[in-house]
Write a structure and sequence with these properties.
By secondary structure, this protein is of the alpha+beta class. It has helices spanning about 45-50, 95-105, 120-130, 185-190, 220-230, 250-270, and strands spanning about 50-60, 60-65, 75-80, 85-90, 110, 135, 150-155, 160, 165-170, 180, 190-195, 200, 205-210, 210, 215-220, 240, 245-250. Strand 14 (about 210) and strand 15 (about 215-220) form a beta hairpin.
């Protein structure tokens, strides 16, 4: 049957086909993994039967997740502004209930995604809200598994998508790795939506930098310094990570600086 197959391990949706691929290109790479049980596939129709959306406040934002957890387990964030709403990152599930709730919250004017692990069903999300643009950095174009006219590939170091809402290419985990800066966030002190390019740690005191999270490969010194350099001059108090409750509520810019210094010191630490 011709359908857009979804990998349950990463949540990525592929171009419609009669049969799924032998392997998921996103998972069959050292930053992700194919489970020991082998490659599996599902569909959006099946996902709608087995899972439901969860909504809750994350600080001043609205988080949108999936229950039970699916794929990598991230949640999306709805940024509501005077100029329209932006969906940051994406989840695989999209259904009528999600569309109704998001429309009641003001709808969505644009989607922006941090990196390929969260592309998921971005084409379906765009279509559900009238074909709105999905902003992806062009450096990661090879990881797009389902193409569509809604995909807007940008190449600059930064891209303003709405007044006060700017995408910043920081690289790191992926070459085109992107964070979102919201100038009006944190009561006007600025907020950074970081996905897991800057992974908020469990103690909410630091952010971390990894090449591969599931395979425990840290990001190298040059890449971490490049992230810090690309964030210089951006003012932000709050940092919103990729997962529920991974929020640093205050002093975010200083936390990033301390985290960069700590990461590099540990990489350079001599054996004891």
């Amino acid at each position: 049957m011709n359908q857009a197959w979804i990998c349950p391990t990463c949540g990525t949706q592929y171009e419609p086909s009669d049969a799924p691929a032998a392997r998921c290109s996103i998972c069959d790479e050292e930053r992700q993994f194919v489970p020991p049980t082998g490659q599996q596939w599902t569909s959006l129709a099946q996902l709608r039967k087995s899972h439901m959306a969860t909504f809750r406040r994350e600080g001043e934002l609205i988080g949108i997740g999936t229950a039970p957890s699916f794929g990598i387990g991230q949640r999306a964030l709805l940024v509501r502004t005077r100029h329209g709403n932006v969906l940051w990152d994406c989840i695989s599930l999209i259904d009528d209930a999600i569309v109704d709730i998001v429309n009641a919250l003001g709808g969505v004017k644009a989607i922006a995604i941090s990196h390929p692990h969260y592309y998921t069903t971005m084409v379906e999300w765009s279509a559900a809200f009238g074909g709105i643009p999905v902003y992806l950095h062009a450096a990661d174009r090879r990881w797009i598994m389902r193409s569509a006219p809604c995909l807007q590939l940008w190449t600059e170091p930064t891209r303003k998508i709405l007044p006060g809402v700017t995408l910043i290419r920081v690289g790191g985990h992926f070459e085109g790795g992107t964070v979102l800066h919201w100038a009006d966030g944190a009561d006007g002190k600025g907020a950074l939506l970081s996905g897991d390019l800057l992974q908020v740690t469990l103690d909410r005191k630091f952010v971390s930098f990894m090449w591969s999270y599931p395979n425990y490969i840290p990001l190298g010194e040059k890449a971490v310094r490049a992230i810090a350099k690309r964030l210089e001059g951006w003012r932000y108090d709050a940092i919103y990570g990729a997962f529920w409750d991974r929020v640093i509520a205050a002093d975010g810019a200083n936390v990033t600086q301390k985290s960069v210094a700590r990461h590099i010191e540990i990489l350079q630490r001599e054996a004891r």
